[in-house]
Write a structure and sequence with these properties.
387 residues; alpha/beta; Purple Acid Phosphatase, chain A, domain 2; 3 domains; six-stranded mixed β-sheet; 19 strands; 33% helix; 23% strand; globular; hydrolase; Metallo-depent_PP-like; endonuclease activity; endonuclease; 3'-5' exonuclease activity
């Protein structure tokens, strides 16, 4: 069976001030063409179909168009909700839509109930694990601790139990939306940290033939059987080195995997350039970036006059301007910036406590801070779900 694995469409999202709807529509056309031309047997979409719980009307219309075009090909599609989607909204009409071959899996309680597809060698069971927010699903899965690994492990126990009851030789595919240990994140993914931990080990998915992951925006292979497709379009400058692709996966009769990356159309290259304003305007090596979307980091000790207008003369598609003046190591501003760089909210809070009272928080106090951050985050998630 030939699968096309994609995820993280983020329909309705912009790239800085650039409307990406046209590029997203071009991707949908490319997806449909790939399904037809490469004789794909099933499409899997591993979450974050939309960029937010209540997407703009234009994004909903594009999604509707995608569903109609996929259904028109007669190729089944299995799709889960991600942490950006409203599972309830995405799942509306799932039963009816399923009759057209579009299988929406947005209910955590149905994690162990697969979509069964068939090829010449027998059945393939597709298990959809929508994004599992630990605080909201821990009771459903009967786990004591609201943690990503605990709820995903419990969901996978249901998958393996169902699979064990099926005919010998039944092949299996799991769709999941999670941060798996070993994956490389980018700046455009929403933080899903709970209890100070965001990732889960790949071993959680043991026992299935292929795990089609969503959430991280870079295409990557965790193991031969556990892969991220990545987002089809860039959504932050941290993705400037990404090659945007989908996975074309051949699932053999014995469950062996062969995977190939299929490139996605990207509207414009990304470039991150750094230096003083005069250096950026004069450096001939930067000529290759003149038509790219640019993030420019200026290192001038004093902020230059009209930097945006001057940069735009050479780089007309400059979208982001960052000021990072080069300072002496003993400069207090430089020292503070270094202390904050790449620090989590938890670490910054702990540093603040240590600064105020002269002693770092002990283990109990660290737990109080962690619980406070988790509670705020859980409230945000519940408000998003309720919208």
């Amino acid at each position: 069976m030939r699968l096309l694995h994609t995820s993280d469409w983020h329909l309705g999202r912009a790239f800085h001030r650039v409307n990406m709807l046209g590029a997203q529509a071009e991707f949908i056309g490319h997806l449909v063409a790939t399904v037809r031309e490469r004789e794909v047997d099933a499409v899997v979409v591993s979450g974050d179909v939309y960029d937010r719980a209540v997407p703009p009307l234009a994004a909903v219309e594009l999604f509707d168009d995608a569903l109609h075009r996929l259904a028109g090909l007669g190729v089944p599609t299995v799709m889960i909700s991600g942490n950006h989607d409203s599972a309830r909204r995405l799942g509306v009409g799932a039963g009816l839509i399923g009759r057209a071959g579009i299988h929406l899996r947005t209910d955590p309680a149905a994690a162990g109930t697969p979509v069964i597809l068939r090829d010449a060698f027998g059945e393939v069971a597709f298990y959809g694990l929508p994004y599992l927010e630990p605080a909201l699903v821990k009771d459903e899965f009967g786990v004591e601790k609201a943690a990503h690994e605990a709820v995903l492990a419990a969901a996978m126990d249901r998958v393996r139990a169902d699979l064990a009851a099926r005919a010998r030789g039944t092949r299996s595919v799991v769709l999941a939306h999670a941060f798996v240990t070993g994956g490389e994140p980018s700046d455009s993914e929403r933080d899903i940290t709970v209890g100070g931990v965001a990732s889960v080990p790949a071993g959680v998915f043991a026992g299935v033939d292929y795990t089609a992951l969503g959430h991280l925006h870079g295409s990557q292979t965790i193991t031969a059987r556990v892969r991220y497709s990545g987002s089809p379009l860039p959504y932050s400058f941290s993705e400037s080195e990404h090659r945007k692709t989908m996975w074309l996966v051949d699932l053999a009769a014995d469950g062996e995997i062969a995977a190939e990356r299929v490139d996605c159309p990207v509207p414009r290259a990304l470039a991150r350039i750094r230096g003083t304003l005069e250096e950026l305007l004069a450096d001939p090596a930067l000529a290759r970036h003149e038509e790219a979307w640019v993030e420019a980091t200026l290192t001038d000790a004093v902020r230059p006059a009209d930097p945006v207008a001057r940069l735009a003369e050479r780089f007309p598609h400059t979208l982001s301007l960052v000021f990072a003046p080069e300072r002496a190591p003993d400069d207090p501003d430089a020292s503070y910036a270094r202390r904050l760089a790449d620090r989590s909210d938890q670490e910054i809070a702990e540093d603040f406590v240590a600064h105020v009272r002269g002693a770092a928080p002990d283990a109990r106090e660290q737990g109080v801070l962690r619980d406070a951050f988790d509670a705020v985050r859980a409230d945000d998630v519940e408000r998003e779900v309720a919208r």
